[in-house]
């Protein structure tokens, strides 16, 4: 059995290079963390603060230490679709864009090592929505403490990185939409606003403050922390209903059983956590049996409730080149609440200082030499999809059917149409208007609801926020995969902590919510010992 793709880069540093002999001295661990990504890094770091707690991290990718192409935030786009990306396709999307590729990082730190590190504490209404959906103890009041614990360097985009056109976007949006200018989105809850983001980065050298940089790099010499890099977990091992470890294939091709005395912590992300469960026979019994996978534990919710933040794009050619300074080329954004009955924003925009034409080019649009983009997205998308296997062969990528824009009342598509209209209003407003030569796509002639919807959906992209495929719910919710203590329903000795447990996506970018989930998981484990 093989990971979906493998890297020629050998792991480099001490922790990345523990030998087989060392491993023999640590055959059994207290905890085995599957996935050294965003949540997994937090949990491994917190657990190994206790010197007697031995933790193995099974990570499919290599180390990020000494890799400037990973550690330099502004180089994020260069990682998409490359060797460090699992690169998952979507299934045919009759109402959306079937060409979307879902980047998922194959490197220590997971997606926090190749994302844009926009750092939003989920809004109180996001957490309260979880609690109302059965996630007792995950309400806004209880969750606040975990934000304060985060080790990441979360700071506003630095003055030197604030590009003149992005500043003018902020001023124009403030004037055109009538929303407040926000300095420090995390300082208080908001329903609307425009401003520069907070980012998890070090402005002095543009270095990431990813989960691995903040939570693992300072502690790589802990003797009780064992990173097994370029090692792929392919089956969870159970003794009756108790998880005892995980079967892995190591970088040099050996197959091993890594055992957990206390617990297995599944942190492989919203795609790979359900995928590994399904290949381990944990999931909807009928689906597993149809593929010839022996059913170990019938759990119908695995892979259901797939969610995302879909976005569209509107691109302008600029009168000339744009100044080059930036943190990562999308440093400012806008939140709008169209429905005053909603507790939070219902439309969000990223402003890109580049012409983001990858999807429109498929429809025949040309990329201008100089340009900018606004990408309206749906913060609370109502469409729900599903992840499922198409083969018992674990090397075959799972099917990701997001069912984009299939919600009954067409809320998701209508949100993007509103977004394009608001984007145009902003573009007509000074001081942004003076920069813009022409609208490239969809083009000023596209104005009707139907044609805007058609355009918005056909060029739709993902904000790369898949979540919800191992949904957390009340202990008696038989469609939930984990209970509010993150324990897999009906099993012992195994929890899930990553974006897959989100009952719903927050209205904001989810990474901070994932890190806070990691902190909470670590605390639950400490509390139960
Ligand atoms: C391009 C991009 C940009 C984004 N930008 C932002 C942003 O600016 N702000 C924001 O809030 N969110 C952003 N996100 C989303 C955010 O990064 C993710 O939601 C979050 O990092 C997911 O964390 P996770 O712990 O669930 O999974 P991951 O961080 O993906 O961790 C999973 C880890 O498990 C490993 N793994 C998977 N399967 C196996 C296996 N079988 N065996 C061994 N190892 C395995 C992977 O290699 C990976 O390291 C972005 C995502 C992408 C892809």
Mean pLDDT: 95
How many domain regions? 2
CATH top level label of the largest domain:
Alpha Beta
- Total count of strands: 24
- In one word, what is the shape? globular
Could you say what the CATH topology of the largest domain is called?
FAD/NAD(P)-binding domain
CATH architecture of the largest domain: 3-Layer(bba) Sandwich
Q: What is the CA-atom radius of gyration, in angstroms?
A: 22 Å
Instruction: List bound small molecules.
Output: flavin-adenine dinucleotide
Low-confidence stretches: 1-26
Helix content: 10-25%
Specify the CATH homologous superfamily of the largest domain: FAD/NAD(P)-binding domain
Major sheet description: 7 strands, mixed
Portion of residues in beta strands equals 15-25%
Span between N and C termini?
A: 35 Å
Number of helices: 13
Structural class: alpha+beta
* Oligomeric composition of the shown chains: single chain
Domain Glucose-methanol-choline oxidoreductase N-terminal: 269-283
Pfam families: GMC_oxred_C, GMC_oxred_N
Organism: Streptomyces sulfonofaciens
Binding site for FAD: 107
């Amino acid at each position: 059995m093989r990971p979906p793709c493998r890297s020629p880069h050998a792991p480099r540093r001490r922790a990345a290079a523990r030998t087989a002999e060392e491993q023999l001295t640590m055959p059994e661990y207290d905890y085995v963390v599957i996935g050294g990504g965003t949540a997994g890094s937090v949990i491994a770091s917190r657990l190994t603060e206790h010197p007697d707690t031995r933790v193995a991290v099974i990570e499919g990718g290599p180390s990020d230490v000494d890799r400037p192409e990973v550690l330099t935030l502004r180089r994020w786009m260069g990682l998409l679709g490359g060797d460090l990306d699992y690169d998952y396709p979507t299934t045919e999307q009759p109402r959306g864009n079937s060409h979307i590729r879902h980047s998922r990082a194959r490197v220590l730190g997971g997606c926090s090592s190749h994302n844009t590190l926009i750092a939003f504490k989920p809004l109180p209404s996001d957490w309260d929505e979880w609690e109302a959906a059965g996630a007792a103890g995950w309400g806004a009041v209880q969750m606040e403490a975990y934000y304060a614990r985060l080790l990441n360097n979360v700071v506003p985009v630095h003055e030197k990185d604030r590009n003149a056109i992005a500043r003018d976007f902020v001023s124009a949006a403030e004037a055109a939409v009538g929303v407040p200018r926000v300095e420090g989105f995390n300082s208080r809850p908001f329903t609307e606003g425009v401003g520069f983001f907070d980012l998890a980065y070090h402005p002095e050298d543009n270095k990431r403050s990813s989960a691995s940089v903040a939570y693992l790099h300072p502690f790589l010499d802990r003797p009780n922390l064992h990173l097994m890099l370029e090692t792929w977990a392919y089956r969870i091992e159970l003794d009756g209903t108790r998880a005892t470890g995980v079967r892995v294939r190591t970088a040099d091709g050996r197959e091993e059983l890594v055992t957990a005395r206390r617990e297995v912590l599944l942190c492989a992300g919203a795609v790979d956590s359900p995928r590994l469960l399904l290949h381990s026979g944990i999931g909807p019994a009928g689906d597993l049996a149809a593929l010839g996978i022996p059913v170990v534990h019938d759990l119908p919710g695995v892979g259901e409730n797939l969610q995302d933040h879909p976005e569209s794009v509107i691109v302008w050619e600029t009168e000339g080149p744009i100044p080059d300074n930036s943190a990562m080329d999308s440093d400012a954004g806008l939140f709008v609440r169209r429905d005053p009955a909603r507790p939070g924003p219902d439309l969000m925009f990223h402003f890109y200082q580049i012409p983001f034409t990858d999807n429109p080019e498929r429809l025949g649009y040309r990329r201008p030499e100089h340009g900018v983009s606004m990408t309206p997205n749906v913060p609370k998308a109502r469409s729900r999809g599903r992840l499922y296997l198409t083969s018992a062969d674990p090397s075959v990528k799972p099917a990701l059917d997001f069912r984009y824009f299939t919600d009954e009342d067409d809320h998701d598509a209508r949100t993007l149409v509103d977004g394009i209209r608001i984007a145009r209003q902003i573009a007509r407003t000074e001081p942004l208007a003076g920069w813009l030569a022409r609208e490239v796509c969809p083009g000023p002639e596209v104005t009707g609801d139907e044609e805007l919807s058609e355009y918005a959906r056909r060029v739709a992209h993902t904000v790369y926020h898949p979540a919800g495929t191992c949904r957390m719910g009340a202990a008696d919710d038989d469609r939930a995969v984990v209970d509010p203590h993150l324990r897999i329903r009906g099993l012992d000795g195994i929890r899930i902590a990553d974006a897959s447990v989100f009952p719903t996506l927050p209205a904001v970018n989810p990474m901070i919510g994932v890190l806070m989930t990691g902190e909470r998981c670590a605390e639950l484990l400490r509390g139960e010992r």
